[in-house]
Design a protein that fits this description.
The protein is an alpha/beta fold and 311 residues long. The chain has 13 helices and 11 strands. It has a 6-stranded mixed beta sheet, sandwiched between helices. A 5-stranded mixed beta sheet has the order 3-2-1-4-5.
Length: 311
Amino acid sequence: MHVLGIDAGGTKTVCLLADDTGRVLAESHAGGANLQASGELEVEKVLHRVMEDTLGSRDIRPEAICLGIAGVDRPSDAQAVDGIMRRIGFKTRTVVVNDALVALVAGAGEQAGVVIVAGTGSIAYGVDTTRRAARAGGWGYLLGDEGGGFWIGRTALAAVVRAFDGRGPATRLTDLVLAEMQLRTPSELIHAIYDRGLHRPLVASLAGVVQQAMLSGDAVASHILARAGEELVAAAASVVTTLGMRGDVFPTILAGGIFRAIPALASDVCVRMAEVAPRSEVRQLDVEPARGAVTLALAAARGTLTLPLYR
């Protein structure tokens, strides 16, 4: 028996082929596949390519596939992805879940826990001991995603133009952002952002620049990252409160590229979570979130899968 576990985020998609013991036999990567931000056609292209690359020339028909996709949480989303899979030609059982769930399963297995995801976007998600679920955030880059890479990058860009106007304090971010984007003056940001199209991964990549500025002692960058930590923990606190887990012992998993790119943010979130859930153990996810998708796909293939239900 073989399964495919897929983690499709805003910036990258990872697909794993595993056997019935969960041992990973092959792995492939592709670009982001966010249903709301990218649209069905782009998601279809990415999924088709990454699954074909993972299977390669192997004569294998997966017994089940689990797709953890950013921005997916409604029945209509699952129907859209089911349609995509039919068009691709994979008619095996497919489980479609939010990518936060596969990250939680990758880090905490079947036990109760909370995950804070900070990638291009952001979301907090949790499951209690009765398999009830709750979420906060994950509203996309126009409505929210506070503390995610795009939000951090966009806030840094706003700080640069405010400093240029004299509406905000001078900041080391100006030189660093311009160098990163290969521009000469802040006035060129207008064309770089609007005329060339708003490339979310590009803006999200500026989060690393904010880390650089913070380490050099820049007060504006420090304030941006403090706000990011505050927003991420506020989302987690909402989940913990909804599920009544404030006094419980459970893991809080930090997942997503932003925590790896900005260690100071991960440390700040750890400190802040101690006030929200003092008995929670906060740790960073040290495996691919797609491993959680493999776990869920194996349960689906065996007929033992029970997905958490929102409270």
